[in-house]
Every structure is written in structure tokens, then in C-alpha cells.
Fold this sequence. Notes:
This protein is mostly helical. 69% of the residues lie in helices and 4% in strands. Its cofactor is heme b.
Amino acid sequence: MSDQVQGFSFISRLLHWVMAVLIVAMLFIGIGMVSTVSGRYTTLLTLHRPIGIAIFLLAVLRVINRLTHRPPPLPASLSAPQRIAAHASHLLLYALMIAMPLMGWGMQSAGAFPIVLWGATELPPILPHDPQLYAFLRQLHTVGAFALFLVLLLHFAAALFHGLIRRDGVLSSMTTSKNST
Length: 181
């Protein structure tokens, strides 16, 4: 098929799939945190914080990688609205991958809760202690999590649409090394 898309680089695919696993895990951990009042909350929170920071760091690397390794072009047969939707959804995903960990870090800072990465290693607060700011950021973090979940569902649906219905190489460009640079 002449409309086939070239593949992403190995680093791009690696960052994509590692982050996909971490983000899905974070969404489930977050759901577990808000749905429990037992001792599991503390265990889940001790996982949630360092994974969130890992996602933030990987997202920054991903932005750098995206700027230095342009993604393959979309198929020429995609309509203008589909191209706009693809670009807008990717921008929203990148924004949420960076904003969510920063909101969480800011929320924890405003609540005067340390972000322990491992052992005695803690991140410094990025905002002053402020209970009202903590409450606002907690709500914003929740809304952001729902937005991230929705955008991920749309992303997954689009990937399946391209892979199973259009068969235009968009899905395989992120799953295989075929034609990657």
C-alpha cells in the first residue's frame, strides 16, 4: 500500500510503551487510592509519587526526543479534520503527561507532604504550604486524571481504527521496527 507510514525510531517506541505501562498503572493506582480508606492507601501513595516523577522525567525526555526525531508523516489519505484531531490529541497527551505530575507534586507541596522517591530521598517542595491551594490542586489533579483517561481511550481507539480498519501503517509505526530510522 502506497499510503503506508514509516516507523518511529526505537527510542521513540521504547519511551512510548514504557510510559504507556506507567500511565495505565498510575490510573489504576489512583483509582485504588481514592476508593480505599484502608492501610492500602499509604502503600498505593508510596508507589504513586515516585512513578509520577518517573513519568514526568520520561515525558520531558519524550518531548526532547520528539523535537529531535520528527515522527513519521501521517498517511496522505487522512482528511484535514483527522489530521487536526491527531495533532491536537497528541498535544493534549503531552501536556497532561507533564502537567499531571507537576500538579501532584505541587499538591503534595501545598499540603506539606513530602515526595519520597526511595529511602530517605525526597524532592523539595515546589509550592508553599497552603491548605486552600492543596484542595484546589487536588480537585484539578482529579479532573486531569479523568481527562487523561479519556484522551488515552481516544488514543487507543484511534490506534485500533488505524490498525484494524484503515490498515494504513499508523499502528505498526509504533509497534514494529519496520521502516524505522
